[in-house]
């Protein structure tokens, strides 16, 4: 190869077979640009991860001092001041979010079933439903709060934990519907064909084969939606914000203490012990949410592995 | 779309089977349709409630509500101008910072990162979106605002002070700019994870072809990856904008609840959503409530618009339709 003369089309000096194979001139500049961009992309990812770490560390550092067993099992003091815990808010948030999940999960899964099992992908009703779910996901959460205020709280003349559950259910519904839809679409085709071949009714195929197969993924979506709803503050502030500190398990008729509003009202108040309590509550909330997120991902990976994906 | 449906005999057959199916099939199908109607009905009910709640304020102030800047509940003066300005500026700041950062993250996660790094960093970036806004707000007040006031704002004022939006730093660090930074933290994971999925969906043949003719990695990104995904990325940015416009709590914590339009972004301001969240505990009159609903109506229109635009842009994008 080296013995052949440079072909006559090439400009003199454009190609020299004896020169070492390193970038020079224009190519060197292009590779420098490429490397610089790669460096910026890497740095951006580091910044995002750093933001997560910085916020988490700040919450842990400020909140760890407040954390103790009595912080988790005692109610906040009746008239402010130091001491006490956030037990009533933990109980309240758990109940409100659980009720929201009970409302939103069946509706969300049914919406997903309609999209995947009972309609052609491009049909008019399927498109309308997808549009409705998309728009619902785009609703500002404070607007959802005002909606429930006008629908439930104002006519009843009373804030309530249940009103909070309704608002959170509206926020969770599109998230659950979307994740369920994605999981249902990944159920292996062979399973559907198998039930069809056996002449099984569609509803029995769905209840006994398709939903059980997709259960892990649906559960993942529900956990992520619960984690999202547990930290929602704006709607609760409007419809479940004026609560007394005591523990209650009655969701109807009066406002129920909850962690997000407890944090927010402490932020707006000037009471230093309320601030300490808010950091402790933030730590509890963040820990629960991050654990739920990691758990949901593990669950999803496991159920995908079982489906052979 | 109808062409697609008719080309899919399986789906068509499935629909027919269900239609003519057993009682169980019809019940389940009926339940599914009921769930869908419930979702759609909820959306209509939201629009109705917000409009009817705002009626008193709409009839009192009309459209000039949008340009009046006074907000004095005790005097019965209400106008949305300060909030519109604060919402627009804080969201714009958030998008200006987060768009390049998020796209860079998506590039890293889809093309540069080794697999082992990718499966750790990807979920971590998404987890940033899981931090509740109330915690970001708390962190914003205690940690971020003082930091902005002491370090970032003086530096920006020193270098770019000739531009009026970078005025001198104020005493607390609470303001429109800090709100924009907090929103950035919330918007980046949304745009980044959507864009990463788009970049991963670019057909391998296209990038391979570019690389085979000697394009560097950046040239592949700029020449192939970004052009094929530009509408999808734009849709992701619109969804991020929707999130930024509607965020109430984090913004309410750090924007400073100002009542005046300031040119400098380091001054306090207010946003539509934050005003609703902050005022609701101190309602003084029916007109006050109605005016908050009016703000919510504006917010609702913006929210729906950004979503519709995002859908519209995204529907134009379909790499599989073009290249499959």
Identify the CATH class of the largest domain in chain B.
Answer: Mainly Alpha
Number of strands of chain B: 0
- How many alpha or pi helices of chain B? 13
Show unreliable segments of chain A.
Answer: none
Oligomer category = heterodimer
Which sheet architecture does the biggest sheet of chain A show?
Answer: none
User: What is the 3D form of chain A?
Assistant: globular
What would CATH call the homologous superfamily of the largest domain in chain B? MetI-like
Residue-averaged pLDDT of chain B: 87
Average pLDDT value of chain A? 87
CATH homologous superfamily of the largest domain in chain A, by name? MetI-like
- Number of beta-strand segments of chain A: 0
Low-confidence stretches of chain B: 1-9, 319-324
Strand content of chain B: under 5%
- The CATH architecture of the largest domain in chain B would be Orthogonal Bundle
The CATH topology of the largest domain in chain B is MetI-like fold
């Amino acid at each position: 190869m080296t013995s052949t003369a440079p072909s006559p089309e090439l400009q003199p000096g454009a190609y020299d077979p004896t020169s070492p194979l390193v970038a020079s001139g224009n190519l060197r500049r292009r590779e420098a640009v490429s490397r610089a961009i790669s460096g910026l992309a890497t740095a951006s990812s580091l910044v995002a991860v750093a933001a997560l770490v910085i916020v988490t560390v700040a919450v842990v550092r400020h909140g760890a001092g407040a954390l103790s067993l009595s912080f988790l099992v005692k109610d906040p003091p009746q008239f402010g001041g130091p001491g006490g815990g956030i037990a009533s808010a933990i109980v309240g948030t758990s109940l409100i979010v659980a009720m929201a999940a009970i409302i939103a999960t069946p509706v969300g899964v049914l919406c997903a079933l309609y999209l995947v099992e009972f309609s052609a992908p491009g049909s008019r009703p399927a498109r309308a439903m997808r549009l409705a779910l998309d728009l619902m996901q785009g609703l500002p959460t404070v607007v959802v709060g005002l909606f429930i205020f006008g629908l439930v709280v104002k006519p009843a003349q009373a804030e309530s934990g249940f009103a909070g559950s309704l608002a959170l259910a509206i926020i969770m519904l599109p998230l659950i519907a979307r994740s369920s839809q994605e999981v249902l679409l990944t159920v292996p085709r062979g399973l559907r064909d198998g039930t069809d071949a056996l002449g099984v009714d569609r509803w029995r195929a769905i209840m006994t084969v398709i939903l059980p197969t997709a259960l892990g993924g649906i559960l993942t979506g529900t956990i992520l939606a619960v984690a999202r709803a547990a930290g929602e503050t704006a709607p609760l502030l409007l419809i479940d914000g004026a609560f007394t500190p005591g523990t209650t398990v009655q969701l109807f008729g009066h406002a129920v203490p909850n962690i997000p509003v407890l944090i927010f009202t402490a932020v707006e108040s000037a009471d230093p012990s309320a601030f300490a309590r808010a950091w402790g509550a933030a730590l509890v909330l963040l820990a629960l949410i991050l654990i739920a997120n990691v758990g949901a991902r593990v669950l999803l990976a496991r159920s995908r592995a079982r489906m052979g994906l | 779309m109808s062409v697609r449906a008719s080309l899919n005999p399986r789906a068509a057959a499935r629909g027919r089977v269900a239609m003519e199916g057993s009682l169980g099939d019809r019940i389940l199908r009926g339940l599914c349709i009921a769930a869908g109607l419930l979702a759609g009905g909820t959306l209509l009910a939201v629009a109705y409630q917000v409009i009817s709640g705002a009626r008193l304020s709409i009839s009192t102030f009309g459209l000039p509500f949008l340009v009046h800047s006074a907000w004095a509940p005790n005097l019965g003066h209400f106008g949305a101008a300060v909030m519109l300005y604060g919402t627009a500026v804080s969201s714009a700041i958030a998008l200006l910072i987060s768009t390049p950062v998020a796209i860079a993250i998506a590039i890293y996660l889809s093309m540069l990162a080794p697999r082992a790094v990718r499966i750790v960093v990807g979920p971590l970036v998404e987890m940033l979106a899981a931090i509740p806004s109330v915690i970001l707000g708390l962190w914003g007040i205690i940690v971020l605002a003082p930091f902005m006031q002491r370090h970032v704002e003086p530096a920006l004022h020193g270098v770019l002070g000739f531009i009026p939006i970078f005025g001198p730093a104020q005493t607390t660090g609470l303001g429109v700019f800090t709100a924009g930074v907090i929103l950035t933290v919330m918007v980046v994971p949304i745009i980044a994870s959507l864009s990463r999925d788009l970049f991963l969906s670019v057909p391998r043949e296209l990038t391979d072809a570019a690389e085979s003719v000697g394009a560097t990695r950046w040239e592949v990104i700029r020449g192939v990856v970004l052009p094929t995904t530009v509408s999808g990325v734009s849709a992701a940015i619109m969804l991020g904008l929707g999130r930024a416009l509607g965020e109430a709590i984090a913004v309410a914590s750090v924007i400073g609840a100002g009542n005046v339009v300031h040119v400098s972004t380091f001054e306090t301001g207010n946003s539509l959503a934050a005003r609703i969240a902050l005022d609701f505990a101190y309602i003084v009159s029916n007109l006050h409530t109605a005016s908050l609903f009016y703000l919510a109506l504006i917010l609702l229109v913006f929210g729906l618009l950004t979503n519709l635009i995002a859908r519209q842009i995204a529907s134009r994008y379909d790499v599989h339709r073009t290249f499959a």
